[in-house]
Known about the structure:
The chain is built from no helices and seven strands. It is mainly beta and 86 residues long. The strands form two sheets. The chain has a four-stranded antiparallel β-sheet with strand order 1-6-3-4, with no helix packed on it. It has a three-stranded antiparallel β-sheet with strand order 5-2-7, with no helix packed on it.
Amino acid sequence: MVKFSPPPGKLIKIVATALSDEHIFSLQGGRSTKSGQRAQGSGGYGLNPKAAHSAMISSETEALGDLCGRADEIKSMEIVDIAPAG
């Protein structure tokens, strides 16, 4: 279970490598685009297969992850400005 709370006007950018398949269930919030628009909402499901992946989160988000082995290797996690739309 994870909870992310980015500051207003910012988003959390995560780059990681999944060392095993992982199933992600979005309980609140969800992934967004670089411009802060919602890309996946509450109640969504995602599969991060064993490979490199990234996520951007622009609103308070809670998710439940079910790992099929080892946890992710986090390459970077940073707070960045939301990009202008367009």
